[in-house]
């Protein structure tokens, strides 16, 4: 089961970073490369514990849907979402926020399991893990830009 960890320093208060990371419209702005949009569940505003959201996006030239649920939230320190329906076998995405002298350290931890058994493991090695890492880093950089403009 691959585990991707990405750390990003953001020169903005922890509350701003936390709320931007769980904002549906901001998520859409930070994932323009995959044309993500919320199509079911919570489709606007701030996600809270217990909420579900279905994202529609284009990955590998295929339009697909993924439904995630916010399974825990400790504002402004952490929230976790887990896939309840989608292309992965499973995933848990943990979003941690820590106050630091420069502002906020945001840590994304993405634990996932690919579908299709050994074929999924092979896909991870060949391209999927790198693709997911780049996706998470790209979203983090865009979130940083937005947060630093808002502070």
- Class from secondary-structure proportions: alpha+beta
What distance separates the N and C termini?
37 Å
Count of beta strands: 7
CATH level-4 homologous superfamily:
START domain
Helical residue percent band? 25-40%
What does this structure look like?
It is a single chain. The chain is built from three helices and seven strands; from the N terminus they run E-H-H-E-E-E-E-E-E-H. It is of the alpha+beta class and 151 residues long. It has one domain (3-150): Alpha-D-Glucose-1,6-Bisphosphate, Chain A, domain 4. A hairpin with a 2-residue loop joins strand 6 (90-100) and strand 7 (103-113). Helix 1 (14-21) packs across helix 3. The model has no long low-confidence stretch (mean pLDDT 96).
Question: Summarize this, please?
Answer:
The protein is of the alpha+beta class.
Provide keyphrases for this structure.
151 residues; globular
Please outline the helices and strands.
Blueprint: E1 3-10, H1 14-21, H2 24-29, E2 37-41, E3 52-59, E4 62-74, E5 78-85, E6 90-100, E7 103-113, H3 117-150
Antiparallel strand pairs: 1-7, 2-3, 3-4, 4-5, 5-6, 6-7
Helix pairs in contact: 1-3
């Amino acid at each position: 089961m691959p585990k991707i960890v990405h750390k990003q320093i953001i020169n903005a208060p922890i509350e701003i970073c936390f709320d931007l990371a769980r904002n549906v419209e901001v998520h859409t702005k930070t994932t323009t490369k995959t044309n993500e949009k919320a199509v079911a569940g919570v489709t606007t505003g701030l996600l809270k514990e217990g909420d579900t959201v279905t994202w529609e996006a284009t990955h590998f030239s295929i339009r697909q849907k993924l439904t995630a649920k916010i399974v825990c939230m400790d504002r402004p320190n952490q929230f976790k979402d887990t896939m309840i329906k989608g292309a992965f076998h499973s995933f848990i995405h943990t979003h941690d926020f820590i106050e630091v002298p420069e502002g906020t350290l945001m840590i994304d931890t993405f634990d996932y399991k690919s579908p299709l058994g050994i074929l999924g493991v092979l896909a991870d090695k060949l391209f999927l893990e790198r693709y997911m890492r780049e996706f998470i880093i790209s979203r983090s950089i865009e979130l940083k830009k937005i947060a630093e403009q808002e502070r």
